[in-house]
Amino acid sequence: MARYERGLLALSLTALLGLAGWASWLDGKAWLAQHLIAHAWQTTLDQGVPQRPWPWADTWPVARLTTPTGKTLYVLESTSGEALAFGPGRLAGGIGSDQAL
Question: pTM score > 0.85 for this model?
Fold first, then answer.
């Protein structure tokens, strides 16, 4: 029975470490994505041409918002699920677009 309990403990510990690693991986990707989006925004301002945060991105930053608490959010050019995973999106044809109201 002790062998069974040690095996169960080892399996539980392995699962716990795996979940912690997965959570760290997701947090790391989110942190890196925000820094790449901020860099793309600054490059867009410097060059005057929209810049994608990474080569395979289907969106790019179009605005920067700052909350009253000082948090910065970058608005992305899309409301697709992939874009919204990284921040707020601009709805094409919505208020603030190039189309007349």
Answer: no
